[in-house]
Amino acid sequence: MARPGKLGLPAAVALVVGNIVGTGVFLLPSSLAAYGTVSILSMGVVTIGAIALAVVFGRLGARVPASGGPYAYAKDAFGEFSGFWNAWSFWLTSWIGNAAMAVVWVNYVNYFLGWTSLGGQLALALVALWIPALINLSGVKNIGWFALVTAVLKFIPLVFVAVVGLFFIDGANFGGFNVTGGSWPAALSTAGALTLFIYSGVESATIVAEKVTDPVRNIGRASVYGVLICAAMYMLSTFAVFGTVPHERLVDSTAPFADAINTMFGGGVGGGVMAACAIVSGIGAINGWTMLVAEMPLAAARDGMFPKVFASENRRGAPAFGIVLGAALTSLVAVYNYFGTGSGFNQILLIATFTTVIPYFFSACAQLFWLVTGARRVSGARLGRDLAITTLAILFAFWMTYGAGMEAIFIGFLMMLVGIPVYIWVKAKRGEYGPRGEVPASPATPPS
Length: 448
Fold this sequence. Notes:
This protein has 17 helices and no strands. It has helices at about 10-20, 25-35, 40-65, 70-80, 80-115, 120-135, 140-165, 185-200, 205, 215-245, 245-250, 255-265, 270-300, 320-340, 345-375, 380-405, 405-430.
């Protein structure tokens, strides 16, 4: 039984599922339709990679049952700078990705409201960002309860489409295999990068390890169970939407699951129910990711890798500064989406994919490091299996980096570089220098 203030296995699985199944899946069929049915193949490949990552995170969580997830694993294996850079990358992912989820959430709210002004849509996005921030400020007990309730509610309509929709599939609705005009491997990679974003959250239980009951056992179980549940639902529901909504309509749809329900049964009642569930799902996912926005820098700040202010907690045990700053930065990204560019959503999505993959890559490499160096003993029978899964996870992360595209990699890498001066400033505040953090015995003598 979970102790007060702790997440038991059901709540931990709900957190993983809630963070993976955000609003992204509710818009994904439209985004993938632009590439053709090759995107269904890409979803299958990405699902295999996501399962491999979940297994790797389970192994890592059992070996290093400390909050921070990828940050803790990279720091333990490769040193503090690698740890810092992973924490920085994941922090970028959290608040950038929240903006993408808020944008999709607004699309489904507008299924009912129909607000066309950019200012009105931005106002709705800000509501989606700050309500979860307030829930997070109220403490971990409310976060776990909210994650569990929203995870249950979002499953009902998705499972309905995934199962019932299979009986309404019309082969004529599927588009061509590759409709991009380019090569199919390039389409496969880019569609895969978009798909990876909907699996972001596989590491959720590792980030809050200290808040999970019996983390050595439950982190791995929550990660793998969460991905398997989501994978089954993703594959079936996306295939069903592709087969029920005509391709030319699907490409331009802002609420594809609602359109699928309406196509199956006619009218708008079913679509309205689906849109309402997408709204609940979105708030639940943003709630979970708002927790991660603050928890990663909290773990890093406790180790002296982030500014100390990130380690401060309110009387309910919530990292208030990280929550508020994360919500504020996400709000700025939302402003950029509505007023800064005409293709903000996909660009934000791919940048978030790139910054997501960096911690995944380092985590898989940390597992490889421990396996091949013998730093963590593994039995001979299990070693071969773990090496194969870890290698698959590394190759998968590398492929997803390529799939994010040159523009996303360029912008994402620039944002990564901004973290280096922050690291230098933190080290200076600690009075340390050098790779091992030596502290000088006396002020250095200036050169003559």
